[in-house]
């Protein structure tokens, strides 16, 4: 979702409705300079809509149906899936694996997105304001690099970093033989995801901080306020909207991130089985497509809720 | 160190203030040092190991050699996967570019009722129906369409996810292009496809380039979609092969992995530098997995 998307521009009534008015105003307002016309315009739009319809909208709607069947990858239920009603959902509520995964995802999102990426991203953006040009260039390049490199490369680099015998981390900390991914699996994928995603928060907070009136900062500093007080009384009130935006987008993306799978595969056991990994393992490895679809739908609904809150926040920002 | 309300600064106060400033400065440098270490340490290996005569997991100053790239060139499997990534990225990019250009142009020039609502709804959908959230229905759909294990499946699914945002961005560009050229072209009897090709496309080129680069970057590193939709190893793009290189049994071939990961990373870094220089960096969600 574009970070700048304005969201509530509904088409304004009479302008769009057909009627005698339209014909009159058409001559003056008509932007159709190439003489496309409705029919050809529809033909231009149709291919894109078909593709979006088949590969984006339809799968989302289809989960509604798949989730109430016992569809399996192989075996009898693969040939003739049966309708099982809400069983998949009811089972989920009492399923330790599902509930465990949900609470792990919660920890993962809070730890890596909110406490990790946002706080680190903001702190970097704040400190880089007063840093020299070279320092700023070095730090920002490194943070961005961690963001743009392909996920499977980054996962491999972290395997090298955390390796038990020759890992760079053990070498530096002098903790020879520590198997980070086995002993601290959740902490590892949280750190990994902070590494991978902080760039977004950093970029957005940098531009947000640039919008804070320098005069207010100057006044606060002259009157002897300490950094924490300046942040609390001057900076945060000014960038409240940005903070909310970053919070919701980063939460949405982190909730949907699959890359920890590349590092741990969900293991050891189920200790890093966050929600996306659970769906993958359950549906595509074990073959329980029906249950997987039910979980998919739960995930889409959670996404929808986060996105709707985001839209609401944007709208309120516009009105104030 | 509390702030005191003494009216005049005393010597003691000055000293406390000085200490505090010094401590603050030290703390800041320590923190920045930590940040640099955190983000640089994992990446160091990517820069040193590919050129090391005996690449190991342990970080070391490389004894320079290009032999690891020789190993890569001799491995048909690895090299083919990079080629597969090129095909999948360019294929998706081409579809997204053509369809988004057509749709955004039409939506920009002709008033369709409910147009804006449609655009925003699609955008919202592409943000919530991510590859991760929809992997099960996508998997079943592709199976039912008998497209499993084809590039076409990967390309279509990726394109479907990227199109809403692409149309949205491009429509903005189209809205801002002047319409007078199209009018004159029309006076001279050009058809609307001709106008699109010879008048609109050249004007909207910066927007199209942005979408092209953005599309390639999104697809190039994507792991999940090809991972679940492709079966035969010789079809795998680099993102999936990279994963199989270090997960599938035995001692990983470090000469191969190091050279491969570097070569696989270079295109996105170059594209990033290009975009950053030309347009400044903007970012969008879409299918991110």
UniProtKB/TrEMBL annotation, chain B:
* Subcellular location(s) of the protein: Cell membrane
Read off the Pfam families from this record: BPD_transp_1
Q: How does it sit in the membrane?
A: Multi-pass membrane protein
Cite the InterPro entries for this sequence: BP-dep_ABC_trans_perm, MetI-like, MetI-like_sf
Domain ABC transmembrane type-1 residue range list: 82-275
Keyword annotations for this protein, in alphabetical order, are:
Cell membrane, Membrane, Transmembrane, Transmembrane helix, Transport
Gene Ontology BP terms? transmembrane transport
Query: What is the protein's given name?
Result: ABC transporter permease subunit
Q: Which organism is it from?
A: Phytoactinopolyspora mesophila
